[in-house]
Specification:
alpha+beta, six-stranded mixed β-barrel, elongated
């Protein structure tokens, strides 16, 4: 019976391919769009992930996410250092400054100022040069993506290809000279701006003059210290906000989920993909069943039970669902691989396979149910009519 069900399914190649293509489209949309969404959301806290050494981030209590900088006075650093359970606490500057390039154009950059003595909070990967080179005069380290793209030097010939920024080149930050001494690899940020590292004292010189310039205090807890208790102690003692790295990521993630239209936009795309896939697959599968009613009637007249016919239809639905799901997921993986070196955000965790698989299963169940109801109500005598 199962062999007959498969021959019935594949006998009409047009409808068979139509069902598979509909499910492939639905699987692709329900996998690709969430993957791009997760990639964007991951970029919102990628800077926190890159700064992996501190256990706790201390900041102004009104900060809502990682880029919502509300500067502190430098004296807050010493207050945090004096709290019991803190092994060390280091300052960090983070701000958006305009860099003047060789051709006179301006480019906004994310400038990170690291503690002059320890350089804690530096880039996760150094491609050229050493982190210690930041101690040179006017030294900065630039991320490789920014050096190749937005900070690249213009071509000598009009319309020619730009030349990537290299070690030894210089640029201006707030009318002050900055010399590139290294290239780093950092995770792309949500703003997609070039990232420039320098020392904390030099970053304060680059930044516009303000009374407060301390963005974060990076804290390392003593060995065996409970992080929840330490963050609570820091809050109660200083009146500042203190979060572990995971809590700070959650704070940033929740802000973008709540205050931006990104979840709604991607949610609509996924929903439309599901509806269109269900409509195409359901209608095509139902039409396929209608055209094969006489064959199902013959089987009923020969004594085949409704249960066997139900299993035959389920087999057909499972087959086209598996093929469509596999093609959709495969196309998503191929898309992500082809976009790996572009600015496009893309993250493809294994949980997305379950999500899209559940969606395709619902579509197949819907398509099978409307066909099963028609077959169950079928009278065997229909074979002998006409």
């Amino acid at each position: 019976m199962y062999h007959i069900a498969l021959k019935m399914l594949m006998g009409d190649r047009g409808k068979y391919l139509g069902i598979v293509m509909g499910l492939t489209f639905a699987s692709l949309i329900m996998t690709q769009q969430p993957a791009i969404f997760l990639g964007l959301m991951t970029r919102t806290f990628s800077f926190i992930s890159d700064v992996g050494l501190p256990d706790i981030w201390v900041m102004d209590s009104k900060v809502q996410f990682v880029d919502d900088i509300k500067p502190l006075q430098d004296t807050e650093l010493y207050r945090v250092r004096g709290i019991s359970g803190v092994e060390w606490a280091m300052p960090m500057y983070k701000g958006m400054l305009k860099a003047r390039l060789a051709d006179g154009t301006f480019q906004t950059c994310i400038v990170i100022g690291l503690d002059d003595a320890t350089l804690i909070g530096g880039p996760p990967v150094m491609l050229q040069g050493k982190l210690e080179d930041l101690r040179r005069s006017d030294a900065v380290i630039v991320d490789i993506d920014g050096a190749k793209d937005k900070l690249a030097k213009p071509s000598a010939t009009p319309g020619g290809k730009t030349k990537p920024l290299q070690i030894g080149d210089d640029l201006e930050l707030n009318d002050r000279r900055a010399i590139v001494v290294g290239m780093s690899k950092v995770s792309r940020t949500f703003q997609a701006q070039p990232v420039v590292y320098t020392t904390y004292s030099r970053a304060k010189n680059y930044a516009p003059r303000e009374r407060k310039l301390l963005s974060f205090v990076l804290v390392k807890a003593k060995k065996g210290q409970d992080l929840a208790q330490l963050t609570k102690r820091i809050r109660e003692t200083t009146g500042l906000a203190a979060y572990t790295s995971s809590e700070f990521k959650d704070l940033t993630y929740r802000y973008f989920m709540k205050n931006t239209g990104i979840p709604i936009n991607f949610g609509i795309s996924v929903t439309l993909g599901f509806i269109v896939g269900a409509a195409i697959a359901g209608q095509t599968f139902y039409n396929f069943t209608l055209e094969n009613l006489r064959q199902f009637g013959v089987l009923k007249a020969m004594g085949t039970s409704n249960w066997v016919l139900l299993k035959m239809i389920l087999l057909q639905a499972i087959l086209v669902g598996s093929i469509g799901y596999g093609l959709g997921v495969g196309l998503t993986a191929l898309f992500g691989y082809s976009m790996r070196n572009t600015i496009l955000a893309f993250r493809f965790p294994w949980q997305l396979l379950i999500f899209s698989g559940a969606g395709i299963s619902l579509i197949c169940v819907f398509a099978a149910i409307i066909s099963i109801l028609k077959v169950i109500r079928l009278e065997p005598a229909v074979v002998f009519k006409g």
